[in-house]
């Protein structure tokens, strides 16, 4: 069975500092990985996805993630955060493409 | 206009009442999903439908039912609401896998449901 672990429930970061949000997954077959962002009072929006090919994936708003098969990780990074990045971020995994399993989310707090 | 529309956006009701949450989409996707979001628990799948004649239970279907009235419409019902069903509910849609590759889901803005 597949599962997703987001190691941090909350991450405080100063504005313009870099950030990494951690995600580890488990799956017995090939995986497809996603990061979603949820801004206050909104639904989830797709940030980026890894389906195949290059292990470094670039998404919207300057975010990127790296698929690491040996460490079963898909950490999300941004070199310089802005106050507008304040949101909850969800890592998700799918194997056969039938369903997506979401992690419990990481709240990113941007400090002035 | 939003591609995935949920109504109502907010609802407060009493224990024992029957509640229906509605979802409609203009994306032309065959697959539709209902999730609930609780603080610290992420999103949990309630029901999903891969086409009009297909309905499947998710991990937390007890106490809920669904109806896929058309390709574009998927409603979630709570037959007799209880307080622990207080949560944020999301509808999502997606295409089926393409070339064997999973496709991302597209979400509505959610329905905040409070059961007193």
Write the layout of secondary structure elements.
The complex is a heterodimer of chains A (112) and B (116).
Chain A: E1 3-5, E2 10-14, E3 19-21, E4 24-26, E5 32-38, E6 44-50, E7 56-58, E8 64-68, E9 73-78, E10 87-94, E11 101-102, E12 106-111
Chain B: E1 4-7, E2 10-13, E3 19-25, E4 31-38, E5 42-51, E6 54-57, E7 65-70, E8 73-78, E9 87-94, E10 106-107, E11 111-115
Parallel strand pairs in B: 2-11
Antiparallel strand pairs in B: 1-3, 3-8, 4-5, 4-9, 5-6, 7-8, 9-10, 9-11
N-to-C order of helices and strands of chain B: EEEEEEEEEEE
Give me the secondary-structure category of chain A. mainly beta
Quaternary assembly: heterodimer
Q: Helix/strand/pairing class of chain B, anyone?
A: mainly beta
Please state the CA-atom Rg of chain A, rounded to the nearest Å.
13 Å
Please, what is the average pLDDT of chain B?
A: 93
Largest interface: A-B, 24 and 25 residues
Distance between the termini of chain A: 41 Å
Largest sheet of chain A: 6 strands, mixed
Strand content of chain B: over 45%
What fraction, in percent, of the residue positions of chain A are helical?
A: under 10%
Short description:
The complex is a heterodimer of chains A (112) and B (116). Chain A is an all-beta fold and 112 residues long.
Give a verbal description of the structure.
The complex is a heterodimer of chains A (112) and B (116). Chain A has strands at residues 3-5, 10-14, 19-21, 24-26, 32-38, 44-50, 56-58, 64-68, 73-78, 87-94, 101-102, 106-111. The model of chain A has no long low-confidence stretch (mean pLDDT 91). Chain A has 112 residues and is mostly beta strands. Chain B has no helices and eleven strands. Helix content of chain B is 0%, strand content 55%. Chain B is an all-beta fold and 116 residues long. In chain B, strands 2, 4, 5, 6, 9, 10 and 11 form a seven-stranded mixed sheet that branches. In chain B, strands 1-3-8-7 form a four-stranded antiparallel sheet, with no helix packed on it. The model of chain B has no long low-confidence stretch (mean pLDDT 93). Chain A binds chain B through residues 9, 32, 34, 36, 41-46, 49, 51-52, 90, 94-97, 99-100, 102-105, and chain B through 4, 35, 40-45, 48, 58, 90, 92, 96-97, 100-110.
């Amino acid at each position: 069975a597949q599962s997703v672990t987001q190691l941090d429930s909350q991450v405080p970061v100063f504005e313009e500092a870099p950030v990494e949000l951690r995600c580890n997954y488990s799956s017995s077959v090939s995986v497809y990985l996603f990061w979603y962002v949820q801004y206050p009072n909104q639904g989830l929006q797709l940030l980026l996805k890894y389906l195949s090919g290059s292990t470094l994936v670039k998404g919207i708003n300057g975010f990127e993630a790296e698929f690491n098969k040996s460490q079963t990780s898909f950490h999300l990074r941004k070199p310089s955060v802005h106050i507008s990045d304040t949101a909850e971020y969800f890592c998700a995994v799918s194997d056969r493409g039938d369903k997506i399993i979401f992690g419990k989310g990481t709240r990113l707090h941007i400090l002035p | 206009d939003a591609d995935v529309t949920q109504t109502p956006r907010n609802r407060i009701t009493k224990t024992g009442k029957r509640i229906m949450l509605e979802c409609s989409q203009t994306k032309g996707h065959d697959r539709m999903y209902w999730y609930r979001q609780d603080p610290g628990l992420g999103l949990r799948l309630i029901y999903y439908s891969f086409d009009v004649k297909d309905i499947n239970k998710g991990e937390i279907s007890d106490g809920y039912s669904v109806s896929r009235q058309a390709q574009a419409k998927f409603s979630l019902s709570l037959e007799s609401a209880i307080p622990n069903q207080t949560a944020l509910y999301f509808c999502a849609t997606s295409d089926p896998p393409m070339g064997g590759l999973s496709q991302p889901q597209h979400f509505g803005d959610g329905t905040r449901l409070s059961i007193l």
